[in-house]
Amino acid sequence: MVGLKEELLKSIWHAFTALDLDRSGKVSKSQLKASAGVLSHNLCTVLNVPHDPVALEEHFRDDDEGPVSNQGYMPYLNKFILEKVQGNFDKVEFNRMCWTLCAKKNLSKSPLLISDEDAFKVWVIFNFLSEDKYPLIIVPEEIEYLLKKITEAMGAGWQQEQFDHYKIALNTSREGLSAWELIDLIGSGQFSKGMDRQTVSMAINEVFNELILDVLKQGYMLKKGHKRKNWMERWFVLKPNIISYYVSEDLKDKKGDIILDGNCCVEALPDRDGKKCLFLIKCLDKTFEISASDKKKKQEWIQAIQTTVNLLRAGSPPPHKEARQRRKELRQKLLAEQEELERQMKELQAANENKQKELEAVRKQLEAAAARAAEEEKKRLQTQVELQDRFSLELEREKMVRQKMEEQVAQKSSELEQYLQRVRELEEMYKQLQEALEDEKQARQDEETVRKLQARLLEEESAKRAELEKWHLQQQQTIQMTEAEKQELETQRIIKEQALQVAMQQLKQLELERKEALEQYEEVKKKLETAANNTKSWKDKVAHHEGLIRLIEPGSKNPHLITNWGTAAFTEAELEERQKSWKGKKAISE
By CB atoms within 10 Å of each CB, which of 194, 287, 327, 436 scores lowest? Predict the structure, then answer.
């Protein structure tokens, strides 16, 4: 239905654009309503669609402001007419009605070699072959196709070179021809020279029947009747889904139809009953026997009918419509490729222009750089001469400076040698100082060992003294006991006194060991003082060498207070207090 609607729109567009326009190129409201009413009524009549004048009046209301273009009619046309079309109408009658409305205004007044009827058929063919865009035009490829078909129908040879010249002239001015320009082209006889009007008219009619009426083949043949079984000559017309047969080729007296579908078939029959070139058309409900005039016609009809049945089985359109669709698709493909090529050409052209601009800019830059280089070369030569003169002066001055520097280097070398000698002496002194420090460190370690031994002896002496005091207290407690126990206590006292004497002897031994430890401590102390004196002498020697090395000095040499509780366990005041307390307790016990 979309293809049918598009075909109807083309004819209606011609009819509607033929309406009288005002100076602005638009139709006034009153003219539009009147003309649209007449056109709508005629369209509804030929298309077998009910006419609705109320809808038309409502569509073009009087409250609209200003004139309305012909586009205002299209919504009404689509909604109230074209959407209701079912296909049960006479296409020729529809096209003739639209032709009547537009031909008088647009058809050329100059005499043509074709009749008005032929011009009408050319106009209908134009609507079939034209592009699907408005205003309608037929492109050169379709013009060539149509003129070839007409030339073949006339039995003449196709003049390709003549058409190529015409095509070149046409392409330089516009994309294609309008319907009226196509009629003028065919009516001028430019491509049908030597042919009479009747031959041209017959050729146009044949092409019209094929392209518009979908006549795939037509001609006289004999048909066998179903009731009386007699043979009658009939004019057969083959279309995509039907074979109609008439009394004569004027198509006025139709005798019947042979409905074709995918289940039909056609078979050749042997000659019989005095009839030759027989073939059979089998349908679901009937079988038709037909006799062609000769074997060639018989084969042509069998092949045409079989091709039509095959197309019905495949659901394909008629060959001329399929060919037109392929040509359109090819043109669209070529147009897309051409547009893509033009786009690429524009991009290349733009890129080329950019490159040209870049090259021009580079050329200018090179020229400017060359000018700058020449100027710089001139300055360089001038500068070179000046530098040569200056270099000579600088060279003489450099020689004098070099001599002075050599003298200074010799002096610095001597000073460096003296400095290195002093460094070596200092390194030697540093090594000796390290050895003295090692000796001092060893002496301190020996002193620490003696101090620990002395502390251990003092701890043992303290423990013995504590034990003696404990025994003394027990002895005092024993004396205070009763006389009955005195003897026993006396015995124990004697035993304890003996033990005390033994402890006193041990204490004396510990005292001797403590004195020996003190003597060792004094000896170590003397060694430490000797090492300190040696260190001091080395320090004095180092001071004479500009203070490059600072000696590590030993710690404080103050004597440590040693008691039976350990090294520096009590101060002297605390020790005296404890001695007084001990003497008081001893006096009490005695």
Answer: 194
